[in-house]
């Protein structure tokens, strides 16, 4: 009986961690917009427009990623085109200086991601040698 209580308690803790660990599309859009507000010095007028764009793209991307009938490469392609659409929409909201800074931030993140990938590959190679 004690074991059943322990297992039940463990399952409750585990499931609550999963539920509280997940963010809604609205929360993700708010967080992303807040970060963009700081990094790009968005005006009070720009913030709701940027948040609406971010929310729309996040919702689209989440529905694509949860589609079990699509391959991973199809999903990546659609998400990538959605992100390009986000940039196009943001170009109409941001000043040219803000948009240039956004492109620079995106490029820096790509470089960082490539570095991390390269480091992971090197670690895998080293582990295989051992």
3D structure, described in words:
This protein is mostly helical and 130 residues long. The chain has helices at 2-21, 25-40, 46-65, 72-91, 96-129. The longest helix is centred in the C-terminal third of the chain and has 34 residues, at 96-129. It is extended, with a radius of gyration of 20 Å. The N and C termini lie far apart (46 Å). 10% of the residues are buried.
Summarize the structure.
With 130 residues, the protein is mostly helical. It has one domain. It has 5 helices and no strands.
Features:
mainly alpha; 5 helices; 85% helix
Q: How many helical elements?
A: 5
Structural class: mainly alpha
Strand content: under 5%
**Terminal-residue CA separation:** 46 Å
Helix percent band: over 70%
Q: What's the story with the biggest beta sheet?
A: none
The whole-angstrom Rg is 20 Å
Shape: extended
Average of the residue pLDDT scores: 87
Element-by-element helix/strand order: HHHHH
**Poorly predicted spans:** none
Number of domains as seen in the coordinates = 1
Number of strands: 0
């Amino acid at each position: 009986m004690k074991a059943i209580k322990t297992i039940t308690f463990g399952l409750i803790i585990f499931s609550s961690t999963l539920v509280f660990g997940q963010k809604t599309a609205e929360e993700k859009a708010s967080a992303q917009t807040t970060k963009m507000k700081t990094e790009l010095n968005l005006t009070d007028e720009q913030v709701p427009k940027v948040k609406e764009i971010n929310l729309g793209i996040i919702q689209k991307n989440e529905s694509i990623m949860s589609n079990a009938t699509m391959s991973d490469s199809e999903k990546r392609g659609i998400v990538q085109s959605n992100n390009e659409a986000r940039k196009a929409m943001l170009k109409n909201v941001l000043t040219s200086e803000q948009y240039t800074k956004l492109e620079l931030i995106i490029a820096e993140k790509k470089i960082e991601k490539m570095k991390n990938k390269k480091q992971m590959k090197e670690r895998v190679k080293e582990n295989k040698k051992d």
